[in-house]
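Review form for a predicted model. The reviewer records the input and the model, then writes brief findings.
Reviewer: anonymous (R2)
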Amino acid sequence: MLLSSFTPDLIEAGCDEVGRGCLAGPVVASAVILPKNYQHELLNDSKQLSTEDRLELQEDIIRDALAWTIAEVGNEEIDEINILNASFKAMHLALDKLTLRPEFLLIDGNRFKPYHQIQFECIIKGDGKYLSIAAASVLAKNYRDDLMNKLSLEYPGYAWHTNVGYPTLEHRDGIRQLGITPYHRKSFQLLPAQLELF
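Model under review:
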């Protein structure tokens, strides 16, 4: 069972981002503040959930959360400031939009750029340990998957409707055959450095 809080006496926001390892599209972050002692039997790391479960959970999270937000940093800015800084910026932008000011931040992962002198704790695989981080991971993933599904209609041939921008064989085949789109991250290695010759 996931934990409801790290600091029982402080208003906590859980933060997570998705899309860091993608070749195309934005990095998306979410911040969620849940009620104290909140419980949900289904809520877990978004990577462990089916699409149907995630969409159902999103309704519950939006209904139950004291505050929630989503923010994104696009591929062009990722190329300018690098993906790590873009991930931090997306989380900061999500925190900026919260209607309730958190007193403590739970960050998924092992690194974070301090935000307005608010205490924080980085937790590796935090989306599988704390409900607020899990909730943020669900909202961020649903938002980004939906965005990449829509972009796949605009730019067919890269299988974004299934890989959502990650470096799958189909995605890289699309890059080889069609070139890149305005949504590709030019600073990333879009194709392997050495392609096999047949």
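Findings: The chain is about 35% helix and 15% strand.
Further findings: The longest helix spans residues 131-154.
Recommendation: see findings above.
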